[in-house]
Amino acid sequence: MEGRKSPLDSLTFDIADKPVKVCYGRPSARGRTMLGGQIAYGKLWRTGANEPTILYAPVPLRVAGLAVPPGVYSLYTVPGAGEWEIIVNRSTSQWGEEGNYTKEVKAQELGRAKLKSERLTKSVETFAIRAEPAGNKAASLLLEWEKTRVRIPVQAGK
After folding, report:
1. Which parts of the chain sit beneath pLDDT 70?
2. What is the pLDDT, as a whole number, of residue 1?
3. Could you read off the pLDDT of 90-115 as tens digits, one per residue?
4. Is the pTM of this model over 0.90?
5. CB 46 within 8 A of CB 52
6. How far apart are CA 20 and CA 4, in angstroms?
7. How distant, in Å, are the alpha carbons of 13, 61, 85, 94, 110 from that of 64?
8. Burial 43-52 (b: 16+ CB within 10 A, else e)
9. 2 contacts: CB under 8 Å, gap ≥ 6
10. Domain locations in the chain?
């Protein structure tokens, strides 16, 4: 879509020889403190900009240890200074802001998992999600922004 301050992006990586796709908006810091500032610690975040981040799972997966059947899901997070909560949700049509995460949307959560964040030495200006392969049946989704990285393990699962 033209004219977005936060461009849409996607990545595709293989798990068990099938393409897993992630689509998300890429906000930039533009001189602002984002994590722990504009995006408050302890508050629900759409893990990008505009619409929630969407995960397309063509095979059963384990995402941060959560069982994820084949399908389409939204990926939310609750950032923290040293730990992030990862949320996988069946609902994908709501706008991504916290106020739209209604009790009806929350009721569609597959689950939540907590992961430690890592400190980066070099700052990342524009939020990025990238995949780091870990063999044929696994990968890590890396969420990177400012001086923070969160590594979400993704593997083939039941």
Report:
1. 1-3
2. 46
3. 999 887 777 889 999 999 999 999 99
4. yes
5. yes
6. 25
7. 16, 10, 10, 23, 12
8. ebbbbbbbbb
9. none
10. 8-156
On whether the CB atoms of residues 49 and 25 are closer than 8 A, the answer is yes
DSSP letter for each residue of the chain: -TT-SS-EEEEEEEETTEEEEEEEE--B-TTS-TBTTTB-TTS-B-SSSSSPEEEEESS-EEETTEEE-SEEEEEEEE--SSEEEEEEES--SS-SSGGG--HHHHTTEEEEEEEEEEEEEEEEEEEEEEEEE-STTEEEEEEEEEEEEEEEEEEE--
CB contact at 8 A, 133 and 13: yes
Residues near 37 by beta carbon (within 8 Å), at least 6 away in sequence: none
Task: Report which residue type is found at 54.
Answer: I
